[in-house]
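Fold it.
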Amino acid sequence: MTKLSYTLGMKVFACFIAVLSGITAFFDGIGIFLANSYGFYSSEVTPANIGEAFPFYDDKMLLQLYGMRDSLLPILVISLLLFAISVIYLLCAAGHRSDTDEIVPNLQDKIPLDLYFAIVCPISLAILFLILEGRNPLADTGALSFVVIGSIILAILGLATLLTCVTRLKLGRYFYQHTIAYQVIRFCWKMLAAVCSTIADAAKSISTTWKIAVAWLVISAFYTMGGFGAIVLSFALLLVFCSMASQMQELKNGGEELAKGNLNYKINTQRMFPLFRAHGKNLNSISKGFSIALEQKMKSEHLKTELITNVSHDIKTPLTSIINYVDLLKKENLDGQAAEYIEVLDRQSRRLKKLTEDLVEASKASTGNLKVQLAPTDMGELAAQAVAEYEEKLENAHLEAVINGGDTPLFAMVDGNLTWRVLSNLLSNACKYSQPHTRVYIDIKKEKDTVILSMKNISKDALNIPAEELMERFVRGDSSRHTEGSGLGLNIAQSLVGLQKGTFSLEIEGDLFKAFVAFPATEPPAPPAEELPEEEMPTDAIPMDDISMEDMPIEEMQEETEKGE
């Protein structure tokens, strides 16, 4: 669709057409009314007897009206059509400019609306009064000219008023906010609110204000007794009170800014009283101290994360070599204690590998260095997949997983891979710490605009630790540390949920452990379009991403290890 042109020339031309067609339609309508009233459409009135029928009117004007009687209606229709088109264009163009798509008020629109009406309305009423109280235009050509000029002025004023009102409406609140009445009402409301706030603050701090009130009453007593000195003292006290109020407001603003976390805000203490100045300097010192502490904490956190990442990366290469050599030794069919030693090495090396991977993932999750791709996901289906993946481990731990609410699809805006890792950590935690021969309940429900997934299990050890402390790093539920684990699972789950704009919480009731994961609900995704058949990959082609250190031959693994060293 072609965009309308809102140039100044087009607007001026449309205004000219609107005024001209509007005036023409107005007078044409009056002409049709007069022609019908004077009987020009009947056979009784003819050009020969028109002067006798209307002796008090101008014969030339009557004859012109009589001659135009048949063309008045077509002219009226054309004038109304041109008027409607031009006015619609002006309404669309109101506030628009050719160089921008935004609504820009002009000089007329910047005048307060009530002041604008106060100027335009008296002028319009005066012109209208003069037109209505003037002489008959059909009897005097001078009166007709005055009526035409007055009508043109009224049309211009009316069109300008219409356009400025439309522009202000397009600007939204500008329509009523840009008025003198609104500003006066707003000012009075602020003054009233300030007075009420002052009274309320004085009432809250009555322990201090009563002293000022007593001092003011004493001064007022001297003032009522008369005397120039009392007047001067009262005025000076008033100035002191005003200065104190201003300084207290500055201190209040500084405290509010600090509470909001704006550590760059500084209080100007140059013109304050000594007591207030000391308080202001203390607030500035607190702000400076917070800034230094925050900077040091951020630096420390960065160094810690970098250290964990680097150390974990350095450990990974030799650890992979150990795991591969252990696998080779297991194939040698060793007997006796040698086989037991190999089993211990295999178990402990893989535990160390899992700990290293958890450290790297915890570091990335806490710093937000993970890619998050949110998409509508069925939480019930995701929970069922996680339970199916852990079916063997649940059986070995003598546990039964029960999913409630998974029959009805409940979609949430999550990252499927990250959420699966959250569920994996929770199920792994349940397998390690749950009482055998019990059930693990997974409930999925929707509350308002949130999908909540909860996991409940009975702990085999007493939970003598707060729920908040369990989500910290390297904290485990069994203080005896009989089970294998790094103490990072719940911390990683909390960080991964936070990256997806969800909430993660724990509750402990005796030996009952509850974990809650909440994500924003969403609508199911649209059905996918039909996909074209892809070219088949050759069977002998293996993606490079699927090749890991563990799949390498021992000779290539040794070369990679030597390169790392």
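The first strand starts at residue 375 and ends at 378.
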